[in-house]
């Protein structure tokens, strides 16, 4: 996670908490700072300072750990392959191995995290150097979490490593910098992708607090609230998550209308929380209305469309009061979408695997009815 707690006692930090003069490590008070110095910070302070000070040093350290984890997890899949960017098996500088965590298949999509990060950074540098505008920033920033070959999001340990890569690239910028704020979101997404949910929650809370302090736009505030709601859900705070998701959906609907992708995503998040709280009919009612909109606006093979249909099928068959017609509809829905998910994302993608697993459970429920 990012540095939001006292280095000595791990208590949550205020924005203006005292800092080490040299390395900028933060403490909740001078007492903790002096205690930490006596307990060994004196030996590390210069090293942290040389590494770019506390936030940069920590980001670089977490990035290296995340890359090593991703390379190890992908080792079997990447045997005998080369990076599509630098064409080497081992990175020339870091000596890291290859990863692949997208929807590419066959010999496509293998790369070094360092190469992917450098490619994303170059694209963003071009935007800034040539003043290409906000639209270009939004489009190109997506390269930090989206494969340039299959155009699908990275997942799992690869997304986590790229999240840390993004954060270490922009953490040294001013707090209000657009790319630094985006990088905070990227590292939160990465932690969530590997189920480090308490760490992700810490990042989401810091993200929302930062945007509130800076006076962020309503659109940016809704995005931060949505991220926080997901983190609450993953850490078991279901009622808090539901309340925020309801407000985010309402806000998106007013700002962008029912056909905007952000509104549809907020609706699906809200429906997923209703499902988690076993409010099956409410979840079904919401998705019955909006699934056809997603299918028409985004297309049948879009990830959000698939997720909406998946949540709808679960709301049908998980309901203890489900009828035979409900179970049949759930099976039919999953049978219809499973081949699409495998075709678009590959059988090893988390979404495709989840849909296949759900289909088996739903068929079993129908057989037992």
Automatic annotation (TrEMBL):
InterPro entries noted in UniProt: NLR-like, TPR-like_helical_dom_sf, Znf_MYND, Znf_RING-CH, Znf_RING/FYVE/PHD
Stored Pfam families: RINGv (PF12906), TPR_12 (PF13424), zf-MYND (PF01753)
Keyword Zinc-finger assigned: yes
Keywords for this protein: Metal-binding, Zinc, Zinc-finger
GO MF annotations, alphabetized: zinc ion binding
Domain MYND-type: 6-45
Stated name of the protein: MYND-type domain-containing protein
Lineage per the UniProt record: Eukaryota, Sar, Stramenopiles, Ochrophyta, Pelagophyceae
């Amino acid at each position: 996670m990012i540095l939001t707690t006292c280095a000595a006692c791990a208590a949550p930090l205020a924005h203006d908490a005292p800092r080490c003069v040299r390395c900028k490590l933060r403490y909740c008070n001078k007492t903790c700072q002096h205690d930490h110095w006596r307990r060994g910070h004196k030996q590390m302070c210069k090293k942290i300072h040389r590494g770019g000070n506390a936030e940069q040093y920590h980001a670089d350290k977490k990035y290296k750990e995340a890359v090593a984890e991703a390379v190890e997890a992908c080792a079997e899949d990447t045997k005998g392959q080369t990076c599509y960017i630098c064409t080497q098996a081992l990175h020339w500088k870091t000596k890291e191995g290859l990863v692949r965590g997208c929807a590419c298949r066959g010999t496509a999509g293998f790369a070094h995290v360092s190469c992917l990060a450098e490619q994303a950074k170059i694209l963003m540098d071009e935007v800034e150097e040539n003043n290409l505008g906000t639209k270009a920033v939004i489009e190109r920033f997506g390269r930090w979490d989206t494969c340039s070959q299959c155009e699908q999001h990275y997942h799992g340990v690869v997304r986590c490593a790229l999240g840390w890569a993004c954060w270490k690239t922009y953490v040294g910028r001013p707090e209000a910098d657009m790319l630094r704020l985006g990088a905070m979101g990227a590292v939160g997404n990465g932690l969530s992708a590997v189920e480090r949910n308490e760490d992700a929650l810490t990042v989401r809370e810091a993200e929302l607090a930062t945007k509130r302090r800076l006076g962020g736009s309503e659109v940016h505030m809704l995005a931060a609230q949505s991220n926080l709601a997901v983190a609450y859900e993953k850490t078991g705070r279901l009622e808090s998550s539901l309340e925020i998701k309801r407000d985010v959906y309402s806000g998106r609907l007013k700002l962008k209308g029912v056909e905007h992708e952000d509104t549809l995503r907020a609706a699906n998040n809200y429906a997923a929380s209703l499902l988690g709280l076993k409010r099956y009919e409410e979840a079904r009612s919401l998705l019955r209305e909006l699934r056809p909109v997603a299918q028409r606006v985004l297309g049948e093979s879009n990830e959000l469309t698939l997720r909406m249909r998946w949540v709808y099928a679960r709301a049908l068959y998980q309901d203890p009061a489900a009828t035979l017609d409900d179970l049949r509809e759930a099976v039919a829905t999953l049978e219809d979408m499973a081949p699409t998910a495998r075709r678009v994302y590959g059988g090893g993608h988390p979404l495709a695997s989840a849909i296949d697993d759900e289909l088996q459970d739903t068929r079993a429920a129908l057989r037992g009815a």
